[in-house]
Amino acid sequence: MEKYKQEFIEFMVDCGVLKFGDFTTKSGRKTPFFINAGFYRTGSQLRKLGEYYAKAIEAAFGLDFDVLFGPAYKGIPLSVAASMAISEFYHTDIRYCSNRKEVKDHGDTGILLGSPIYDKDKVIIIEDVTTAGTSIGETMPILKAQGEVSVLGLVVSVDRMERGQGEKSALSEIEEVYGIKTTSIVTMEEVVEHLYNKPYNGNIIIDDALKNAIDAYYKQYGASC
Fold this sequence. Notes:
Blueprint: H1 3-15, E1 18-24, E2 30-35, H2 43-61, E3 67-70, H3 75-90, E4 95-104, E5 110-114, E6 122-126, H4 134-144, E7 150-159, H5 170-178, E8 181-187, H6 188-195, E9 199-200, E10 203-204, H7 208-221
Parallel strand pairs: 3-4, 3-6, 6-7, 7-8
Antiparallel strand pairs: 1-2, 4-5, 9-10
Helix pairs in contact: 1-2, 2-3
């Protein structure tokens, strides 16, 4: 596993973003782990988060694209942080853009924040975690309404690797439905691999009991691919 992935897993733990215990997802599933990007709360945390996204984007897509689009609301700071990191680490100026939940009818009118999106633009969508693909279904029409736009793909922080609407993972379903590539900074398989029975800051974060609970969860809700 690449070093930046290992660092990102530990970063999520340090920030309180990756938690283990008893949780219920929006879809009603009982899960032993939870990822909440809302716990990135400081400038230094967002700076590091942008760096991890930038590395994942460069590894999966390269840098031949024009716009990083972050759907409102959590995608807004992600698009800003990652575009800044791409500029800093790869010396490439990528425009960032997000949508408004409500169309503005005065001043800077329209549905978009940040850069406009033009004909022929190549766009990558950036999100925190995708479990059902609902956000992409709302995002794609917004992007396509801007002109002849090429959506290259989607990047998320963690691939939960569980079923979406059918038997396949949410990311696999998005690839099939929209014909775009998807990637993540890390997968839950990589998270477990890195933390299982290995001390971090003097603690074993994933012990045998938690590993068994995670395995049971994936036996019930794991995706076929």
